[in-house]
Model the fold of this input.
Amino acid sequence: MKPVHGIVVACLAVLLSAGWTAPASSFGLSAAGVRLGTVDPEDGGASFAGGGHLEFEEYGSRFHLTPNVLFWSNDGLTDINPNFDIYYHFERTGKVSPYIGAGAALHMYSADGPFDPGNDLGLNLFGGALFPVGRSRLFAELRYSATDLAQTSFFGGLTFPISH
Done:
């Protein structure tokens, strides 16, 4: 097993055990959003990227579960990237706040021509800042994905509340 895959399996085990010990009703869908930015894959040029996310939270908690999907394409290589991330924000909701997070990723690559890059598991590490705008939140995020094709990305986005 590659070292990155071991880290991903360990992160998934922690996330699953955390979810397993919490009551089913503790985390509810609280928001949805969009993100746009750039991604710079290892051995490749920077590219435009975009995606969307959902947020699940327990009311009053500073932890958020954020399943999301990202997409980028550059020089014939495309990545559709579903992620399961968790982040922690340091200030209460409604205030400007830094945040940090981690998660697991599945990179589904495709390429023009005979070369098929296949799929790859990854570990996401990220941090950023939340900026309240009414009931919504703007965010700026720097993200690193540890995979066989490591990626550094910067995203900005907007998250819209669904409940609370």
User: Anything to note?
Assistant: The chain has one helix and eight strands. The mean pLDDT is 85. The CA atoms of residues 91 and 97 lie 5 Å apart.
